[in-house]
């Protein structure tokens, strides 16, 4: 079971740049980490309309993949320096250059466990040995955690037509057990959505290195 693939297409179609144009503070933190480690190329799965790719495209060569065609079009206008293709981040590429780093904002929590594992594996397959990854996801400290029907441990249908996995620190360790974890963090992020208005989310972050 997966969130209706049309959900995002519908939202981007009716709301456009849903979360405004400012990048997440986590994108700025990831950019600093990537600059410190001499990263040249960055891959962004679930790139949306380029709100966060734009934080990277001045300093790095940036590519992304995004499910919603409308978001891909918006990304081409908002951040023409990044190359965002339409497709699923769950699919591992058969060939292609390996990236130095991956930044993945609030995509992983959208899936049930088998697909979360698949997304992490697909991302690792796009990363060169020693490459860096920086992920964010909903936190189990978010007030929505525990709301609605429980679909699996830590995953709730917290809104009509929408579910998410709310990550604990142990979840990070379990999902990224094959990597060298550099740092984990937590933050409250405020988004100003066109339809939702000002909205706070509790997020978790992880920075890790693919083992060589
Ligand atoms: C919560 S939004 C985050 C958007 C974006 N990362 C940002 O920073 O603004 C999740 C995004 O993931 C996209 N998405 C959902 N499932 C996907 C998949 N299987 N492959 C690629 N993108 C996907 C959605 O269309 C949406 O743009």
From TrEMBL:
Record-linked Pfam families: Methyltransf_11
InterPro entries according to UniProt: Methyltransf_11, SAM-dependent_MTases_sf
Domain Methyltransferase type: 46-135
GO biological process, one term: methylation
Top-level lineage group: Bacteria
Molecular function as annotated in GO: S-adenosylmethionine-dependent methyltransferase activity
Record keywords, A-Z: Methyltransferase, S-adenosyl-L-methionine, Transferase
Protein known as: Type 11 methyltransferase
Organism: Paenibacillus sabinae T27
């Amino acid at each position: 079971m997966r969130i209706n693939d049309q959900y995002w297409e519908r939202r981007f179609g009716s709301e456009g740049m849903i979360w405004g144009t400012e990048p997440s503070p986590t994108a700025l933190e990831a950019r600093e980490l990537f600059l410190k480690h001499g990263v040249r190329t960055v891959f962004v799965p679930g790139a949306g309309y380029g709100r966060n790719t734009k934080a990277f495209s001045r300093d790095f060569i940036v590519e992304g993949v995004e499910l919603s065609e409308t978001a891909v079009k918006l990304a081409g206008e908002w951040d023409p320096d990044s190359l965002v293709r339409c497709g699923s981040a769950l699919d591992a590429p058969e060939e292609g250059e390996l990236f130095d780093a991956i930044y993945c904002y609030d995509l992983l929590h959208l899936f049930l466990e088998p697909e979360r594992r698949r997304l992490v594996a697909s991302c690792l397959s796009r990363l060169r040995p020693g490459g860096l990854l920086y992920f964010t996801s909903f936190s189990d400290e978010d007030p929505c955690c525990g709301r609605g029907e429980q679909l699996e441990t830590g995953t709730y249908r917290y809104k009509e037509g929408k579910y998410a996995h709310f990550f604990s620190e142990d979840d990070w360790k379990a999902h990224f057990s094959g990597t060298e974890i550099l740092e984990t963090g937590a933050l409250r992020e405020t988004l100003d959505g066109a339809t939702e208005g000002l909205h706070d989310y509790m997020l978790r972050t992880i920075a890790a290195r693919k083992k060589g």
